[in-house]
Amino acid sequence: MSKNYTLNTKITRIFIYIFLIVLLFITVAPIWLLLVNATRSTTQIQQGISIIPSTHMVENYQILANRGLNLPRGFLNSLFISVSVTFLTVYFAFLAAYGIVVFNFRWKKVFAGFIVILVLVPTQLSIIGYFQYMSRLGLTDNYIPLIVPAIASAFAVFFGIQYLESIVIHDLVDAGRVDGASELRIFHQIMMPIAMPGAITLAIFTFVGSWNNFFTPFIMISSIEKYTLPMLVQLLRGDVYRTEYGAIYLGLAMTAIPVIIIYTFFSKYIISGIAMGSVKE
Questions:
Q1: In sequence order, which ranges of 179-244 are alpha helices (DSSP H)?
Q2: 213 — phi, psi (to 5°)?
Q3: Among 199, 203, 201, which residue's Cα sits nearest to residue 188?
Q4: With contact defined as beta carbons under 8 Å apart, do 60 and 250 qualify?
Q5: Which of 56, 104, 128, 272 could link 41 by a cystine bridge, Cβ 3.0 to 4.6 Å?
Q6: Distance in angstroms (rounded) separating the CA atoms of residues 58 and 35
């Protein structure tokens, strides 16, 4: 009986490993081909698929530069917006979540339920009114409408509430109050260190979402020198670049590389943050 059980376990593990290897190949292969094609010329790409990088990356970049597409500027614009949005979102989301989880006040459950409703509202429903409001304030073609609303991210607050409810230790909060610490000091020195895995997880999701965001910047930004990287890559679909496949792949690769780096080096924080947030007392 034990031998049959051991044999079945080994067979099951083999099938699981094979399945995971297939999933890994399906996930990695398109990304690798994107990076490889960014180093190949248009002629090489038209000849067929290759998994070996070529030597035409500099030429592809020169094609983009000679036609006025400033990818480094777009990269810095996206980086500035994404870092700012990430910091504001994570800090104020956990600050709001701390107030909701730790304090007991009237209509607390109603307020938390209202946040859930806001999470379900898509951005597209409010973008027209938001654009008109920003236009009256003279804030169009500006980064402020893209950064400041991150202070009030409904999804981030919801995530923070769910996470803090699973890890918050009220005795530590009470001990801090007895010692005379202010609520902000308790939040900064007690809660945030405990909630750091969840904060990093939220930061990663927020950064990637902001980095890949095309819709809102496309509505708000009109000056090409303020374009984000996804907006510049969108220009590659024009007739001027349509036949320059190597240059197109290079622009797409520059957009994807930061996301790949983020997930490569911080995936362990995503796993630990979700795992800790899923355990309740």
A1: 183-186, 192-194, 196-212, 215-220, 229-235
A2: -65, 120
A3: 199
A4: yes
A5: 56
A6: 13
Q: To which residue do tokens 């509202």 refer?
A: 121
Domain with CATH 1.10.3720.10 in the chain: 71-277
List, for residues 224-261, the tens digit of each pLDDT value.
888 888 888 777 765 555 677 788 888 888 888 888 88
| Rounded-to-integer distance, Cα 264 and Cα 272, Å | 14
Q: How far apart are CA 57 and CA 41, in angstroms?
A: 8
Length of the chain as a residue count: 281
d(CA 215, CA 118): 19
The whole model's pTM is what?
Answer: 0.80
Q: Which two tokens stand for residue 155?
A: 């999804």
Among 82, 86, 105, 106, CA closest to 94: 86
**Burial classification of residue 164, based on how many CB atoms lie within 10 Å of its CB (0-12 exposed, 13-18 middle, 19 or more buried):** buried
- The tokens for 56 are 């035409």
**Torsion sign across C-alpha atoms 153, 263, 14, 33:** positive
- Output the CATH code of domain 71-277: 1.10.3720.10
